[in-house]
Structure formats: structure tokens, C-alpha cells
Amino acid sequence: MNKNAKAIQTELRSRRDQTERLRPIAGRHNQRLKELRFAFRRAELTPQGECAIEGVKLVEEALRSGLHFGSVFFSESARPLAEKLLRQISARSETFILPDALFNSIVPSDSPQGVAALLKLPSFSADQLLEHANDGPVVVAAGLQDPGNLGTILRSAEAFGAAGISLTEGTVSPYNWKVLRGSAGSIFRLPVAQVSSAVLIPLLKARGVRLLATSSHRGTPLPQIAWTLPLAIFIGNEGAGLSPELTRQMDETMAIPHAGQVESLNAGVAASIVLYEAARSRKSS
Description:
Elements: H1 3-21, E1 22-24, H2 31-42, E2 51-54, H3 56-64, E3 69-75, H4 79-85, E4 94-98, H5 100-106, E5 115-119, H6 126-130, E6 138-141, H7 147-159, E7 164-167, H8 177-183, E8 192-194, H9 197-206, E9 210-215, E10 220-221, E11 231-235, H10 244-248, E12 252-255, H11 267-284
Parallel strand pairs: 1-4, 3-4, 6-7, 6-11, 7-8, 9-11, 9-12, 10-12
Antiparallel strand pairs: 2-5, 3-5
């Protein structure tokens, strides 16, 4: 047998092995499928502590980040994709194949890509998050409600070297599928902690972390801010900003100079500009 024939046989055997890993699910009553549906619809962790992700990009980013999948679900029409991804997915992960109609009824996106998964994200306490406060700013999402904004902030926080992000009360769940999608995989690698402001602020102050708040028009212009670490950047609610109680506890309020006829910047955009400026200033100093 020549080398080409052996290579073909090896490839066929590999494809057969991958296909045999796919356990069929025909109905809605499979327990793991119920957990996937719960995680998507409630934007919460399953009882096993897993979140739900969907789409090729997020699954590939999770693999690249070294995360382990509890279960991976493919639609019937995505078999070619399954053959490709199963080469990278641990044999310890459960893998399922579903009819297209059933798969599409479970996942939340309008244009499903044929793959979804349940996996555990790394968990962090406030103390663990603050261990890295001298490496970059801590971002605090305080009452941020739009999942697209939070996803953008997560992505920018990783891109511009933030130490991590803390989510206080009133902030959208980090397990919301739009947050996960918007983060483009950054949530897999960036320390994220869910901590109430009543607990977080005393911890920050005890560690000598300077508290900076963003504002639409009032405050120190961004180019004049001292970016000396450790510091925490608070991003408030899209409409109301930070609560008066939180605002009173800030060390400084900063404003991004922009045209006066523009009422305010999108929270995700504003946070990204601030994080870029902080990173640029640190590199130039």
C-alpha cells in the first residue's frame, strides 16, 4: 500500500471515529439539552456551574483559551464543522448531534452556525481580582444594563491591559449570550468577579486603589488624568450614570472631550476610549 492510500485510510478512519463520538438527540427531553436551554434563556449558570455559548468563533476562542467543554451540541447540517472541531475537543467532553429544527429552537441567535456548548468559566473573587491591580486598571461596571456594552467593555479591557472587571449590582449577567458574543472570547481570559459595591469599594480603598468615574461633560478632561496604578475605572448605567451614593465615593471624575451637541457617548465606546488612553499613557511614561 502506497503512502497516499495509507493517508486516505487514516483520514477515513479519523472521520469515522469522530462521527461515532456524536450521540444523537432526537427530542427535547435530554437532560443536557434542557440545561443548555436553561442557560441560554435565563442567562444563568446551570446547576453544574456551566454557561452556554454559541457559534464557531466563541467555541474556537474557548478552545484557544484552554477551557474544557462539558457538552458540545452540533446541528445535523453542521456535520462538516463537527468533523473539524472534534479533532480539537477533548474526548472527555460529551458531543451530541441534533436535527436542525431542534438545534435552532434551543439557541438564541437568528442565524445559528450549528454549534453550541456548555462549559465552566474560571471564577474569581474580589480579592483575586485585586491581586493584579498593579498590572492594569480595574474596570467596574456599576449598573450597566446593555449586554452589547458589557461585551464591548470586556473585549476592550483585555485589549488594553486591564487587570480585570468587577460587576456590581444592577449589571447585566456576564452569562447573557449577547455579552458572551460581544466579548469575542475575552471573557474566557479576563478575570471577572461579581461583587456588590458595598463590598468592593471598602476593599479598593483598603488597598489604596484610586477610584475614577466617567462623566458625560463634567470632570477632569481625559488627557489631564494621572493614570498611576492602582486605580479603578467606574462605568455607570447607560442612562443615569453612577448613582449619587457611588459618585460621592469617587476620588475623581473624568470627562471625554467631545462636541457639545452630543449628549453623551455610548458606554462601551466611552469605556474603550478611557482604557486606550490609560494604556497609552502607561506606555509613554
